[in-house]
Design brief:
This protein has about 600 residues and is of the alpha+beta class. It has helices spanning about 1-25, 50-55, 60-65, 70-85, 90-95, 105-115, 120-130, 130-155, 160-165, 175-180, 185-200, 205-215, 220-230, 235-250, 255-265, 270, 335-345, 385-390, 395-400, 405-425, 445-455, 485-490, 495-510, 520-530, 535-545, 555-565, 570-585; strands spanning about 35-40, 40-45, 295, 300-305, 310-320, 320-330, 355-360, 375-380, 425-430, 435-440, 460-465, 470.
């Protein structure tokens, strides 16, 4: 009887295994293996991989967790399975116990958080693992808040706005709405909510709204600090008006009036009431100082740096950084510049010895010269120009130093490379002169220190005013007396000879603090500019008169003579200046590159 029972049991096992194979629950039967049946799912005992693959069943998940309670892989798969089955509380409970979290189970739990209404927890997970899902949920929550704000607008019930604050803590809209709700009722409450809005988003407009609330509650110093922070981003008529109100109440009335004047001119009518009517008068004679304190294209004008024949150079600030802005004079015909300034902006990137053009605002359809003049924004050079070095008493020791010719050789060797860069692009600078040779930092007052500063590039000379450049072959309509070649003064087409001449005169002036030709010749050339009948004789005199060379150092004489006579190229000048610096003055070659 016993044998029959054993035989029947074996037959039943074989039938069962055959059925499992037929149903697909056992991939490969294991002889003498131990099998588990969990809700109809057959798993060979100890086969963890098969167990993991079957964890889309709740009973299998429970068994797996009891069998492997500390196995991270099992726990992760359990979280994913429980999330899919809608067992969110269990999935979340397991997830919080994980030390290291990976995207798959994290995103599954985030969906669970959404299902149970804990969107902020979901948002937190999405911020780490899915930008796309984060944006989708964030937009959904913003719309939810916006709907509550619409309800407030319809009912005036501020209580619902308090609930909206907690829906999306990064969204400033409900805090702003509450700030405005209390602006006339309770200034302290108003400030509290505007401060909350700024905490959520430190934007320009939020800062100004907070400053306004401070002013209304009499906290003028706090308002001023906030406005100054906002104006580091940009200065507008609105910020100027608020700043004026704060300053006015801090007894800084003269400073306040400047802000009110700017705000008034920009259209803030309330500001106009606070300025003397006389200061609104615009004289027919324009002077650039009128721009001080004004904002042009987002740049606040701080100072007038200079005035030239073509325009004005202003010191401007934006986001706490200084720039130079060149504004063309109204009468200047800048049609050609309109086409060329973008190209000049590109060229200025190609040499470290060219002042960078960073932006241009030249529009042939400009209407109001005061508020939107044709302008070019350039890097600010804080070291002044070569003209100052040649003229100011503070640099007298440097100019009379035995090292001065070496200093000049380094400066002009570097600038020669910048001019070659311009010429290679098919343009002529047309206005090379000491006042257009700028320094990144002030040149030291003594020869040895100045030479060291240039060699180590603590001070870098750069050629400025690329806005004056024109294409080779284009008629030249502007010039600077003494530095311009006669043919340039007479409106001839631009050629490299013109820049070579101006460069050479600038080199001569730097070495001798004088000009190469006598004053009578300069007067004759200027008369010929307005009287074409005198040009032929003026040119004859120009080519027949020898420049004065007795104060020129011997090593520079050949370059200067050939440069003034147009018998040398810019490349040859650069090479010869480099040779002088290296062979005569023992200056390292790498300094001149």
């Amino acid at each position: 009887g016993f044998c029959i029972r054993v035989f029947l049991a074996l037959i039943l096992c074989l039938l069962f295994l055959s059925l499992c194979l037929f149903l697909g629950n056992i991939d490969t039967p294991v002889i003498n293996g131990n099998y588990l049946i969990i809700k109809g799912i057959v798993i060979i005992s100890g086969n963890k991989r098969k167990l993991l693959d079957s964890m889309d069943n709740y009973d299998v998940i429970q068994y797996a967790l009891s069998k492997y309670p500390s196995d991270d892989e099992v726990i992760r798969q359990a979280i994913i399975g429980l999330s899919k089955l809608g067992k969110c509380s269990e999935a979340i409970s397991l997830y919080t116990k994980l030390d290291k979290k990976y995207p798959e189970e994290s995103l599954a739990v985030a969906e669970c958080y959404e299902k149970i209404g804990e969107e902020l927890e979901a948002l937190k997970i999405y911020s780490f693992f899915s930008d796309e899902r984060y944006k989708i949920l964030e937009e959904k929550l913003r719309k939810k808040v916006d709907k509550i704000i619409e309800e407030y607008d319809a009912t005036g019930n501020a209580k619902i706005l308090y609930n909206a604050l907690s829906i999306l803590p990064t969204y400033d809209a409900p805090a702003l709405k509450l700030g405005w709700h209390f602006i006339r009722k309770n200034s302290e409450e108003s400030i509290k909510f505007f401060e909350e809005a700024v905490k959520r988003s430190r934007s320009y407009h939020n800062l100004l709204m907070l400053a306004n609330a401070y002013i209304k509650s009499g906290k003028y110093m706090e308002a001023l600090k906030i406005i100054e922070e906002a104006e580091k981003m940009r200065r507008t008529a609105g910020s100027a008006f608020l700043r004026g109100l704060a300053l006015e109440n801090l007894n800084a009335k003269s400073e306040a009036e400047k802000d009110f004047l700017y705000a008034c001119k920009e259209g803030i009518v309330e500001a106009c009431e606070k300025v003397k009517p006389g200061v609104l008068y615009s004289p027919r004679d324009f002077y650039p100082e009128q721009w001080i304190g004004y904002v042009i294209y987002g740049y606040e004008v701080k100072q007038v740096l200079g005035t030239g024949g073509m325009g004005y150079v202003l010191l401007v600030e934006r986001l706490g950084k200084k720039y130079a802005m060149k504004i063309m004079k109204k009468e200047y015909n800048f049609d050609e510049m309109l086409n060329e300034v973008a190209k000049m902006q590109e060229i200025s990137k190609n040499s470290k010895y060219l002042v960078r053009i960073l932006a241009n605002f030249i529009d042939e359809n400009w209407v109001d010269y005061y508020s939107s003049p044709p302008a070019i924004v350039m890097e600010y050079m804080g070291g002044g120009d070569l003209r100052d070095v040649l003229a100011k008493d503070e640099y007298s020791t440097l100019r009379h130093s035995v090292l001065w010719p070496q200093v000049v050789s380094v400066i002009f060797s570097k600038l020669a490379n910048a001019i070659i860069t311009i010429h290679k692009e098919g343009y002529i600078h047309c206005d090379i002169k000491p006042s257009n040779i700028l320094f990144t930092s002030p040149l030291p007052n003594y020869g040895e220190e100045a030479l060291e500063a240039l060699e180590k590039e603590h001070v870098i000379p750069k050629l400025s005013d690329l806005g004056s450049a024109v294409k080779i072959g284009t008629p030249v309509i502007h010039y600077t007396p003494y530095y311009a070649h006669p043919l340039q003064r007479f409106g001839q087409r631009a050629s490299t000879e013109m820049d070579i001449y101006s460069f050479t005169v600038s080199l001569y002036a730097s070495l001798t603090n004088n000009f190469p030709f006598p004053e009578w010749l300069e007067r004759e050339l200027e008369e010929a500019v307005t009287n074409p009948s005198k040009r032929e004789q003026a040119l004859k005199d120009f080519y027949s008169v020898d420049p004065r060379m007795d104060y020129v150092p011997e090593e520079f004489k050949d370059i200067i003579m050939r440069g003034l006579r147009g018998e040398i190229t810019m490349e040859e000048i650069a090479r010869d200046l480099k040779d002088i610096a290296i062979t005569e003055y023992n200056i390292p070659e790498e300094v001149l590159i």
